[in-house]
Design a protein that fits this description.
Length: 284
């Protein structure tokens, strides 16, 4: 029985690019193939060898093009079965991950903890110093890195103008409730995870991500203003890493299996479909 696991970034918005990556794996079967860390070589499987119907594939491609998808990749046991680009988009085109980048940041934070740079149960203030919000000092000090990962910081996710949900300025990070009292999707607060990792490691977030994640799985890309950008195949590598629970061949990026399990399971009582910056399919 084939179980399909999906990591998707699909933006059906005017003048916004779309990227959809689909990863397929046999349920319960260990991953034996990983593409090389460098170069463009990546083993493939013919769709016909899997009994896939070409007319159905063509129909799927038509649907994807109509819905403004720009890149589409299907992996089976780590190998490429389908790879299709639309319009002017190519394998070398760069796309932004939008909020799928949050899942990458959760892995970055897990690696930072694994390396001893951070502890997600420690106060954000212990890394950034006081005043990273306008919350009362005691309320600010109560916010841990875990609260940022689980969207339970208690900071106001709809601050008044000129602030918005993505604002990171301390004046825009306002106290609303105590920690762990509500779940609210707050991009501005989430971006402080990168600040914590950078402050604790002494590296910029791109340098840390490249050294501790990208170089270990052959991925390339960059954080720009809190958003991640890469080619489609780099995102596919991250999806393959996710399917293998943070293990790439013989390299375990996060040795603390407990962190990985917490990341991809319900993290708080308010939104069962959310882990550590990770949406959980099949829960609502």
């Amino acid at each position: 029985m084939v179980i399909y696991e999906v990591l998707a970034l699909t933006l059906f918005m005017k003048k916004i690019l779309s990227l959809l990556l689909v990863f397929a794996a046999l349920h319960g079967k260990a991953q034996n193939y990983f593409p090389p860390l460098s170069g463009n070589n990546w083993d493939t499987l013919a769709p016909s060898s899997l009994g896939w119907c070409q007319p159905a594939i063509d129909s799927l491609y038509s649907l994807l093009e109509r819905t403004n998808t720009k890149g589409f990749i299907v992996l089976k046991d780590g190998k490429i079965v389908l790879e299709k680009y639309f319009g002017t988009f190519t394998a070398d085109s760069i796309h932004y991950w939008a909020s799928a980048g949050k899942s990458l940041m959760a892995v970055v934070a897990g690696v930072a903890q694994d390396k001893g740079f951070i502890n997600i149960n420690h106060s954000v203030t212990s890394y950034l110093g006081p005043g990273w919000t306008t919350a009362p000092a005691a309320k600010e000090a109560a916010i841990t890195v875990r609260h940022l990962l689980t969207m339970t910081s208690g900071l106001d996710d709809t601050p008044p103008a000129p602030c918005d949900n993505e604002s990171t300025d301390p004046a825009c990070l306002k106290y609303l409730t105590d920690t762990s009292q509500r779940w609210a999707y707050h991009t501005g607060a989430y971006q402080k995870v990168a600040s914590v990792v950078s402050a604790a490691s002494g590296q910029g977030i791109n340098a840390f991500t490249n050294q501790q994640v990208n170089n270990r799985i052959g991925m390339s890309g960059a954080w720009v203003a809190g958003v991640y950008y890469s080619k489609a195949r780099s995102m596919a590598r991250f999806g393959l890493l996710a399917l293998n629970k943070g293990i790439w061949q013989n390299d375990t990026l996060i040795k603390n299996a407990g962190y990985w399990n917490q990341m991809v399971n319900t993290s708080q009582p308010y939104n069962p479909a959310y882990g550590y910056l990770w949406w959980l399919n099949g829960k609502n």
